[in-house]
Design brief:
2 copies of one chain form a homodimer.
Chain A (H helix, E strand, L loop, with lengths): L4 E7 L6 E7 L2 E5 L1 E3 L12 H6 L5 E3 L1 H6 L3 H6 L3 H5 L5 E3 L3 H6 L4 E3 L4 E4 L6 E4 L1 H11 L3 E2 L12 H22 L7 E6 L5 H13 L4 E4 L8 H11 L9 E3 L5 H9 L4 E3 L2 H7 L2 E4 L2 E4 L19 H5 L2 H9 L3 H28 L2 H11 L5 H19 L1
Parallel strand pairs in A: 4-14, 5-6, 6-10, 10-11, 11-12, 12-13, 13-14
Antiparallel strand pairs in A: 1-2, 2-3, 7-8, 8-9, 15-16
Helix pairs in contact in A: 6-7, 7-8, 8-9, 10-14, 10-15, 11-14, 13-14, 14-15
Amino acid sequence: MSSFSFTIEAECPETWARAGTISTPHGVVQTPIFMPVGTQATVKSVSPEELYEAGVAIILANTYHLMLRPGSQLISDFGGLHTFMHWDNPILTDSGGFQVFSLGHLRKVNEEGATFKSHLDGSAHLLTPESVMQIEAELGADIILPLDICVSYPCTSTEAREAMERTHRWAERALTAKERYRTEQTLFGIVQGAFEPELRQYSAQVIGNMPFAGIAVGGLSVGEPKAVMWEMLHHVTPELPEDKPRHLLGVGSPEDFVTAVGLGMDMFDCALPTRVARHGGLFTRHGRVNITSARFRTERGPVEAECDCYTCQNYSAAYVHHLARCEEQLYYRLGSIHNIRYMLRLASQVRGAICAGTFAAFRDRFLASYTPAMEVVREEQREKWKMARRANKA
Amino acid sequence: MSSFSFTIEAECPETWARAGTISTPHGVVQTPIFMPVGTQATVKSVSPEELYEAGVAIILANTYHLMLRPGSQLISDFGGLHTFMHWDNPILTDSGGFQVFSLGHLRKVNEEGATFKSHLDGSAHLLTPESVMQIEAELGADIILPLDICVSYPCTSTEAREAMERTHRWAERALTAKERYRTEQTLFGIVQGAFEPELRQYSAQVIGNMPFAGIAVGGLSVGEPKAVMWEMLHHVTPELPEDKPRHLLGVGSPEDFVTAVGLGMDMFDCALPTRVARHGGLFTRHGRVNITSARFRTERGPVEAECDCYTCQNYSAAYVHHLARCEEQLYYRLGSIHNIRYMLRLASQVRGAICAGTFAAFRDRFLASYTPAMEVVREEQREKWKMARRANKA
């Protein structure tokens, strides 16, 4: 018997936002929630104790990376991811689908599954809806996802429809396969449908009607304009069952988090807060700042006044600036802790506003006062990531 | 008035080892002691709280690096290094002499001082015995060192003598200049003399007779065979005043620490424990192991059985191995914490043995059971560092 449950404590009267509680074998998660990404069984540069202190309730780990190194069988031998990485709160593992999709020419997909070449050693691997259930059972996360197909932006209607239909067939196969494995794990479904409103609506209906305990929305934030992503959510959310938690995969800048909560999303994972931190980008109430800029050189106050994170409680912005300019490893930690705490505090504020019935005003005020990275910076960053991904593959 | 004092609690009847206590404005240090190196006002990848937890009593910071970035004046404006870097235990700053010496063709030395070009931006700087006293006053460490001249190995007798004699004249100038600055700081002298027994003896006498509160031995561990370094200490120690602490600069592998304590040294600083950790080398009671080697892949126990460090208390060797193979930043932290704790525990065991009158047996047992990095590995590493230094300069 699964010990998973989801209850809703409050709903916003003006938007689709809800405040809920997810129960898992490793504890309770209050939603809306942000999950840091621990790709290789570690949230880059941050220890488990520091994650607890920052208020992190649940993290995401990547099946693709862990199946290749150190291998899911080894993690199973160590009693699962929780024991292996010394983390006792809930974990969610993705299915590897997104990573395989991003491998481009290194993968081949047919009805059986997806064949890909490892970015580490070029070895060939086949992922099927069934093998992914076995691998995720070995990893032992509290919440797991089924193999899906994510298409790129833009794509043709035919590609979009075929990928979605196969994702639906794979969802059925995953549900059947899941029965062979650990009952304490909870399987979410994944909505696809690319950037076609009708496909998104249809996929939400199909996946929403399958016996999944929660719904993830995949295939967004893959290069499309923000407006397109929000339009897709406008079509998806009304079709989803009310009583299941909704996870928007791979999204999680402060501004996107607040916007998507208003569009009915409950769970968010994203490497962005820790990745931009490593490049000097730190979140404040007024927007993202770059700690390496000269104005912080002599700043006696913390990175953000009144921030309750370890970094801001103990170090001046000038010292954090110094470490960042020196590319000292302690910087990557201090920056990551700050941004993670920022996201968790934001999630808690958002939840408070939903419970108080003031979320719409909170959202509007937040979006008016928070300056995200400029679109041009964002575009440059996207190019850098693409190049890094290509380099990984080479 | 200086609040510095040094008392000796025990002396080994068979060797020159002593157990002492140093008092400074920021607290007490029991000797023999190992100091981690915080070159740029941070011990690479480790937080102050983690250093306290590992038993670190005192750290060394590098004047050369800090005067260039962020600048000693800025650190002074922040109330000194302790406040700037959030570290409340004692700090020792070196004089910059060793770094300037290692810059090779980028420096020029005359009687006034040493001119060098910054490895960061090529800007020219002049260090004199007087300006170093001012810079170190601004940095605000508890213990400071005077500008000295370190020659390379091998060198001619003439070079060795001239560098030593100038070091002595600069020591006098530093003592005079020091009177203008903060009385709560304590100045140590530096013995030079390269690899000439008579020069080493003479320098120990001259520096030992000057009104320094402690004596550092410089110019060793610069590429000479280990036997040569020990021979030099055999000549130096008997000439030094008994009642002053003795700091062997830049030395601090486990085997060198234990050996040099037997030759009368009390204080040790070295980047080696944290540097080799970052390259996978971890200390155990049986010697240095490489955590990336395949035998740790499935190791359920900690890196070292019975080790009381944070790493060994919370993580399997297999997980540490996984992080190291993935080059995850958490690895650099976990490895560094382990080696630092190892060094501090070793220092505490050495002190215990001295107080119990069993140091000679402890040392012999330790050196018989501890396998250091093979000489060939050491040689490769030395070459790598030299190349890295050259790259820095380019």
